[in-house]
Amino acid sequence: MTTAPNQADRPRRLPAVRETSAGGVVIDVHEGRARIAIIARRNRAGRVEWCLPKGHVEPGETLEETAEREVAEETGIIGRVLVTLGTVDYWFSTSQYRIHKMVYHYLLEATGGELSVENDPDQEAIDAIWYPLDEVHTKLTFPNERRIARTAWQRLAGTA
Questions:
Q1: Distance from first CA to last CA of the chain, Å, rounded?
Q2: Mean pLDDT per segment of 10 residues, for the chain of length 160 residues?
Q3: C-alpha closest to that of 128 among 20, 35, 14, 16
Q4: Cα–Cα distance, 147 to 83 (Å, whole number)
Q5: Measuring CA to CA, which residue among 145, 150, 151 is closest to residue 101?
Q6: pTM for this one?
Q7: What pLDDT, on the 0 to 100 scale, is given for residue 65?
Q8: For residue 56, what are the contacts with CB-CB under 8 A and spacing of at least 6?
Q9: C-alpha closest to that of 151 among 101, 87, 76
Q10: Whose CA is closest to 84, among 56, 104, 58?
Q11: How far is 160 from 145, CA to CA, in rounded Å?
């Protein structure tokens, strides 16, 4: 005979929290070829992931201001937002929360700075490199970020 599980036997559902971030694809043209600045960081398991620069919105900041600040902090490159590229929406869990994250991505034009991770206040970025925009899909870790980079390419090529 089986009995119905009682409330104490069920796993406790973690509370959900919403987080908002912004970042993007900062473009520079070098020797006639578009390239973007991407960063490397270590995930919780210690593996290196290549991704687009992004981070949390600070109080009083617009999404565009956050994208420009985060790109500068994580790559050393100063950029100016040109257009929106799209949003990445995903869930992940910590030991205390389920987090619903929304990341707003923008296309930025590089206007100055030097490639460096030295000014990343969180010290999450362990490296930053320029990578050819038309090849970056081979380097970026996450499919959603590859989609954002492809959208940037299409916008620049005039096909989007």
A1: 62
A2: 58 85 95 95 93 96 97 96 94 86 96 92 90 95 96 86
A3: 35
A4: 16
A5: 145
A6: 0.85
A7: 98
A8: 19, 20, 21, 66
A9: 87
A10: 104
A11: 17
Burial (Cβ within 10 Å: 0-12, 13-18, ≥19) of residue 2: exposed
Backbone torsions φ then ψ of 117, nearest 5 degrees? -105, 5
Question: Are the CB atoms for 83 and 153 separated by under 8 Å?
Answer: no
Whether the CB-CB separation of 9 and 138 falls below 8 Å is answered with no
Q: Is 111 left (phi over 0), alpha (psi -120 to 50) or beta?
A: alpha
Phi, psi of 143 (to 5 degrees): -55, -40
Question: How confident is the model at residue 160, as a pLDDT?
Answer: 65
- Token digits for 115? 């490639």
The token duo for 128 is 């930053």
Q: How much of the chain is helix, strand and coil, in % rounded to 5? A: 25, 45, 30
Query: In terms of residues, how long is the chain?
Result: 160
| Beta carbons of 152 and 36 less than 8 angstroms apart | yes
CB 36 within 8 A of CB 85: no
Contact assessment for residue 92 and residue 100, using Cβ atoms and an 8 Å cutoff: no
Contact call for residues 154 and 160 (beta carbons, < 8 A): yes
Query: Which residue's entry shows tokens 């043209």?
Result: 29
